[in-house]
Design goal:
By secondary structure, the chain is of the alpha+beta class. 20% of the residues lie in helices and 45% in strands. Strands 1, 2, 3, 4, 5, 6 and 7 form a seven-stranded mixed β-sheet that branches. The longest helix is centred in the middle third of the chain and has 13 residues.
Amino acid sequence: MPDRIHLTVATVIEHNNKFLMVKETKFGEQVINQPAGHVEPGEDIQKAAVRETLEETGWDVRIRGFLGFSTHYASRNGVTYYRLSFVAEPLGFNEDAQIDQDIDYSLWMSLEEIRASKHSLRSDMVLRCIEDYCAGHIYPLEIFRDGL
């Protein structure tokens, strides 16, 4: 059963009224997601979010707030995803970053473009955490007590 529970992180990154997103192909279908991925055993949650963002987009970021905890059950693979979403500030594009093979490409999208692509979002968590960000539902990082 533990292999059907996945702990993941995601980042919402806004710059010039656009959000950093990725396009990836899952189950033969191209979908849109935030930079997101799995937390590795023994890894600090916030560092996992920074790492996943770099690996999926090539962008170095700094975590500056917490958006919340959400869950999603994926019927295609029977996995329940537990996702911690963060707000991050873009620091710069890293030309030397190795992008994960699972990522088709990254792009900057406006909120309107994301909403218009709702049918292509990887899950309902994608738009929900952007809307939480836009509504100012951002929590301080002091709520984390990572001991790693």
